[in-house]
Amino acid sequence: MPEQAARACYRVLLWIAMPWLLLHLFLRGRRQPEYRRHIGERFGIYAPRNDPRPVLWIHAVSVGETHAASPLIAALTAVHPEFRVLVSHMTPTGRAVTLPNDADIERVYLPYDYPHAVRRFLSAYRPSLGIFMETEVWPNLVFECARQGVPLALANGRLSQRSLLRGMRWQSLIAAALARVRVVLVQSPDDARRLKQLAGIDALVLGNLKFDLEVPGNQIALAGRFRAMWPQRKVLLCASTREGEETLILDAFGQARVPAQVLLVLVPRHPQRFDEIERLVLARGMTVKRRSAMEAIGADCQVVLGDSMGEMFAYYGSADVAYIGGGLLPFGTHNLIEACAIGCPVLLGPHTFNFAEAARDAIEAGGALRVADAGELVRRALDLLEDAKARQAMSEAGLGFARAHRGATAKTVAALAPLFVSAARAR
What is the pLDDT of residues 150-184, one digit of tens each? Predict the structure, then answer.
């Protein structure tokens, strides 16, 4: 489809989608009240601002992108302290992630990609430059930034094979948008190859910013408090689990011969599912305590429900073995780097396309193991929980893997330097 026809079709589809978007906000707001807040921002309505400093705008959709942005924000603000930082999100969980110097950072929702909404956003903040994290490139927003002379970059970019196939349906539109992004920085050669196929652009491969995320000291301290809550227990953590995975894990856990000292800690990825997961545990006759109670876990407790956000490092620090969710079913596994960086042995499901290169490298380094299904997950976890030497070897291998891949932040700051020069000339 030619570019102009694709742009016209895209705009028509956006208007058709308006009732669905409103219904989506309403329904999500019933399960997750944070979606009811700041609704005006999603349509380009913002309170007036009086800060005269130039604006460095970074868009980080949700939790993963915000974590990736964290070391970059710290580095950029150290080099360019004259900027006021604006971070936009699409999810409340992303907006809730703590960032460096958070008190001096403005957090907002990016509007949906309606032309009038993105114009209001740009008028309200007048960013000197913008950085999209990982995969989020909204066509109308990019076109309007180009029209207004706002230089853009894509940082820590990634494009899975599945996303490539979806993107090919709108190839002319996406290619036109990416052609207006001045700097495109990606995580791996595979990401660069797929972007080349999709949009015909040459991306610079710099590695993954998530390797540069420092483990916060307060999370290490919290891990110690978690451990004090369940002394003498061997902990299998299932982190960032997705819909359907908990059922598979709980059934496999219930069918296995699990020693009494083994404790299963379930931390669902989405907070609106906490109550649902508790019901799944209770329906199987298993005893469960919630992390929010922050009380000692007795010897009779089989499952702890991690009903908290922003504490994943603490969960990894308190676990003996961790399964990273998303991989048992075709959601795609979530971030395994955090677990490796804190020295927690990692188990991965078969579907790792979201972190394909990191998963492959972690397995080759010996810091992670791949399992085929929930039954094998529980069996391999129980074997590791009985083998302290194997766990120690995986821990050291994971730490080495994480250290070996650090350094993307400094490279990214250097690659973004021309945009800051352009922004300074425009002021």
Answer: 999 999 999 988 889 888 888 999 999 999 999 99
Of 3, 34, 41, 65, the active-site residue reads: 65
- β partners of residue 184: 154
pTM given for the model: 0.91
Please check whether residue 350 is in contact with residue 327, taking contact to mean a CB–CB distance below 8 angstroms: yes
Domains and CATH numbers, the chain: 3-207+407-426 (3.40.50.11720), 217-404 (3.40.50.2000)
* pLDDT score, position 288: 95
How far is CA 245 from its chain centroid? Answer: 18
What end-to-end distance do the CA atoms of the chain give, in Å?
38
Distance CA 310, CA 219 (A): 9
Is 364 part of the annotated catalytic residue set?
no
pLDDT digits (tens, 9 = 90+) for 52-75: 899 999 999 999 899 999 999 999
CB 282 within 8 A of CB 66: no
Q: Which two tokens stand for residue 175?
A: 């290619």
